[in-house]
Structures are given as structure tokens and as C-alpha cells.
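call fold(seq) -> C-alpha cells
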Amino acid sequence: MPATAAAKVSLRDVGLRYFSREGETEALRKISLSVAPGEFVAIIGPSGCGKSTLLSLVSGIVAPTEGEVLIDGKAVTGPSRKVGYMLQQDYLFEWRTILENTVLGAEIQGLPMAKARDRAAQLLTRYGLGQFLNHLPRQLSGGMRQRVALARTLCTEPDIVLLDEPFSALDSQTRLALADEITEILRREAKTVILVTHDIGEAVSMAERVIVMSRRPGQVKANHAIAFAAAKAGRPTPLEARNAPEFNDYFRILWQELDVHVER
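ret:
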């Protein structure tokens, strides 16, 4: 999808090269895409194609070598309070309580802490963790810890949420349940979401659009809108989507487009 003025996030002809003693490595080449306000987009592709690097560019942690990254039409020049980043691991500090972990981002950003604690307590309670505010991370299950990580991400009230393989460390049952929970939360909060995942089923069931990247240097290879005909009252939950007739068709198309097949 080409960048437009109405886009929440835009990448225009973005390229990225790394330089080391061994020489130059081209990670991304001519990436152009946009994400609309409130849209949920997933990015898939073979390992090493630059999926997570794209999130680093959007977050302002890394600057492109060529092209530009924009949020609300303005160039990204560094980390922004508009962007929340949820990583693969929860990275909770074991010596801080769940509430103290949740307000960490607000603390780092210098936001008013009384308001942040109220917001954190509300989020944790809403996510079924109200009775664990003063517990330590080791007292929680993996799925509960990831809910804390999400609450920490949303505590600073970002417009955009970046999800980098957020369920990959969980067992399959917890992963499916948490995908349902987090998708519902993000839709209710009306966030713009970019999910990076290796799991095609996860991408199809959670996202409204799936972007397929090529091998390195990563380029946009395909762009698919994901729609389910039976979902007249709104998009189905990820678990419902996996049982929809369209799910297998999307899965097959995306699998064929991924450059992960072994050559004989």
C-alpha cells in the first residue's frame, strides 16, 4: 500500500545498510508501505529478512540509510511517546512488583507518576490481574507476565503498538488464548498495531492485512487484505478466524509466497 497523507505510519522508499569491518550489509531495500489509523497489520517473512528491523525504524530506535519513516505525516527522528513497543520476552524486573513494572515506561519518560499508577492499576485490573498488583513477576504464569508487559506498553497511552513475536516464548495453548485476549484489548483501545511474527496462522487470525517480505535485503513481496465473509457483526476473534473457511486459503497463499522452501 503506498504512503498516503491519512496514514498513521508511512515508510517511503526506506533502505537500511549496516557497516562493519567485514563490509556492508544491505538489510532492507526500497520499502514503501503505510498503516491506517486503527489498522492491525502483520508482517511475515523468512528469518533475517528485516521484519524486526522495520519495527525498530518505526519506533525511532534505528534511522534508515535511505528514504523516510513518518508518523502522522511527520518524519521520525527518534523514539516517540506515540509508539509503544512490546518485545518477544516480557523483560519484567524481578525485584519490582507488578504495578512497579507496569509504570516503568512512564517513569523513564518522566510522566506524572500518580496518573501513571492509576492508569496501570486500571489496566491490570481490566486484564484480570488486579489481585496481583503487589506480587513479584516470579509469582505469575507466562501468559500473565505477557499481559503485564502489554499493560506496561499501554500505560504510556501510545497511539501505535509494535508487537515483536510477543507469544513465541509461550506454549501453544497459552499462545492461542493470549492472542485472543490481546487482540480484543488492542481493538477496544483503538490502537494502530504492527505485529511481526513467524506464525502464518497468527498473522491471518489476528491482522486485517498481512505484508509478506522477501529474503534479505528485505522488500515488500506481497500485501494481502484479510477478510472473513461470516464476520458481519465485526471481525472474528483469532480463535474464531482459525475455524473460518477462508483461513486455510489465506494460509496456503501466504505459505507459497514465503521464501522458506528447500530447493531440491
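The longest strand covers residues 23-35.
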